[in-house]
Amino acid sequence: MKKVCVITGGGSGMGFETARIMGKDHYVIICGRSVKKLEGAVSELKAEGIDAEAFPCDVSDYGSVQRLASHAKEIGRVAAVIHAAGMSPHMGDAKQIMEANALGTIHMNNAFYKVMEEGSCIIDVSSMSAYLTPKIIMPVGLYKLSTTDPGFFMKKIMKRVKLFPKKVQSGVSYGMSKHFVIWFAKQDAARFGKKGVRVLSVSPGNFETPMGDLEKDEAETYMKNCAIKRFGYPSEIASLFAYCVSEGAGYLTGTDILCDGGLVASGVSAFKR
Ligand SMILES: NC(=O)c1ccc[n+]([C@@H]2O[C@H](COP(=O)([O-])OP(=O)(O)OC[C@H]3O[C@@H](n4cnc5c(N)ncnc54)[C@H](OP(=O)(O)O)[C@@H]3O)[C@@H](O)[C@H]2O)c1
Q1: Which domain holds residue 34?
Q2: Which of 46, 77, 189, 204 is buried most, with the most CB atoms less than 10 Å from its CB?
Q3: Which amino acids bring their CB within 6 angstroms of ligand 1?
Q4: For residue 260, how far is the Cα from the chain centroid?
Q5: Which residue among 12, 36, 39 is best mutated to probe the pocket of ligand 1, counting the most ligand atoms within 8 A of its Cβ?
Q6: What is the CATH number of the domain that holds 173?
Q7: 181 Cβ partners below 8 Å, 6+ apart?
Q8: Residue 273 belongs to a domain
Q9: What is the mean pLDDT of each run of 10 residues along the chain (273 residues)?
């Protein structure tokens, strides 16, 4: 039976680099909305001798994610899921960002919970923004609704986002959505644990990817006091993802790993750069 690794956002950036590593000993399914991007990525992977396929999927649509999960199970044993798909403040409005990042993570965990078996692992990709956005604005009291009624949760959290001035709403939505991802992955560890499956989140700092390029100016102002004064390379976060899903990390679950070159440790925040 094939050992399958599913990577959302696998057509570019961190997801694509992860496919290059995971593809050494897994059959890789890469997903995203843009078919052209996925097909280009699959051609590159195949040229490196990697057995990979493109599966178009919009993570904000549960039907689409369910089709992805059923397809992955048909191909083989779903050994690893790296949910790297996401949208940053430069990529959409507040609602689209919340739907891709928060609702997308609920959909991925719920659909893959049904098809993953003992020994496998799912990583939900968050962001250091979850650490930099002031805690006081995080609507933590609403998060639990996501486990019973994702639609109602989305309505309530978007109401909170809309309390902020229009020009900061997409940034607020990004910070909140990524803070939620960490919470969601943590609370899901017990549910997945009953099946012998691990779930954790990883929070990247500034990385050299198409998304990272869009945030470059802001990132550079943050980086002045950072321990490592450069962007992270996609291969560096891909290696971390690959380790986290490996057997060697078999005791790692229900936690978040911040990989930001020491940026958060430098004491910066949304108000202090
Ligand atoms: N780069 C950074 O500095 C940085 C920092 C912190 C966190 N992150 C997080 O790291 C993850 C990977 O980002 P990246 O840096 O590798 O950027 P990227 O190259 O832009 O990758 C994001 C991927 O997500 C896919 N995507 C977006 N919305 C989607 C949706 N609704 N359904 C399915 N796929 C969707 C995009 O493909 P399509 O457009 O074709 O759908 C794209 O391939 C993201 O979750 C991001 O928030 C990145």
Answers
A1: 2-261
A2: 204
A3: 8-9, 11-15, 32-34, 37, 57-60, 84-88, 100, 104, 125, 127-128, 204, 206-207, 209-212, 215
A4: 15
A5: 12
A6: 3.40.50.720
A7: 101, 102, 105, 124, 125, 126, 127, 130, 201
A8: no
A9: 96 98 98 98 98 98 98 98 97 97 98 98 97 95 98 98 96 97 98 98 97 88 88 98 98 98 89 66
